[in-house]
Amino acid sequence: MSSARIALLVICAVLAGCGGSSQTNLLPTSSSTPLPPPAPPAPPTVSNAGRVFTLDNAASGNSVVVYSRSAVGTLTRVDSVPTGGLGLGHGLENQGALTISASQGVLLAVNPGNNDVSAFRVPTTGLVLASRMASAGSQPISVTEFNGLVYVLNAGSPNSVSGFHVDSAGNLAAIPGSTRALSANSVSPAQLEFSPDGKALVVAERTTGLIDMLAVGADGTLSAAVTVASAGTQPFGFAFRNDGVLVVSEAGAGTASSYNVDSSGRLQVISSAVPTNQTTACWVAISRDGNFAFVANTASASISTMSMAPHGDLTLLHSIAATTGGGPLDLAVSSDNRFLTVVTTTGEIDVFSIDQISGALSKVQSLTGLPTGSSGMIDP
After folding, report:
1. Where are the alpha helices (H) located in the chain, listed in sequence order?
2. Nearest partner of 16 among 271, 255, 368, 367, judged by Cα
3. pLDDT per residue over 215-255, tens digit each?
């Protein structure tokens, strides 16, 4: 092995938080004065840009689990911060259990076990629980934010969405009259998210096969939903590209579709039900440059890569771009667009590097130790 290769491996091990014992070979082997013991490692100091967050969803006490990311993509667990609420201890069949506000510097997390939402301040290091507030429904599973406006999706019957304001100190305040029912009491909703311009809130309804678009008013309340039938069966997770193109994963037949939002606020299909050739396409993330959509196929334990054309057309590039150590759930692309991080049904986190030209994925790391019911993945 070349000396350059050995040096690279040592650097990678240090960045991943794994100290190497090979350094003892550099110390003198004979000395009349004993060498002092090595100093204990300093506690990790992690910047916002180098942190990854997930939710352990524990029924005994919900917590946000925090990881630091090294320059080569590997993660090191650095903290577990209680939300003050409760999880459910099993899968939520959702996308978006956590979100982070760039404008307010606040992280938001759902507590489905006791029907509330937690807000954290996000300083340079650590997380500080700032407030909690009832979700105005039961079993909140997904949360989204735009410039201090927050909406939560309640999956308990009757299904609903409810709105809040959050300030930069992390204080939540309910918006009177903001609660809106979905199309029926029980539609198995999976996610809600604001459009990139904040003018619309989108909700996917699995059992009805509908996608709801709710216009956002100046006071933060919502109009009645404008619905469209999903191009594929059982719309589940979704993600917006920065230009407003919407990509929706469809669990029923293992497909994904893309849409534009027209001037009337309705969705118009661009690509209809493009197969991944895998089973249960449930979650989706879009690369930061907008060139690729990554679809998590839970039953197949695989990730598919689709290319995104400038107008939003989807083309399958890799049916199996990567395999995961359990059914893949929520996933996120790093801020530098180099890594895809996935939480799985077995409590594993898998990290993949992204080929910027082909969209291919290469395994960087697998971490274990999370509860199997863990949910949500954000990489700000």
Report:
1. 3-15
2. 367
3. 999 999 999 899 999 999 999 999 999 999 999 999 999 99
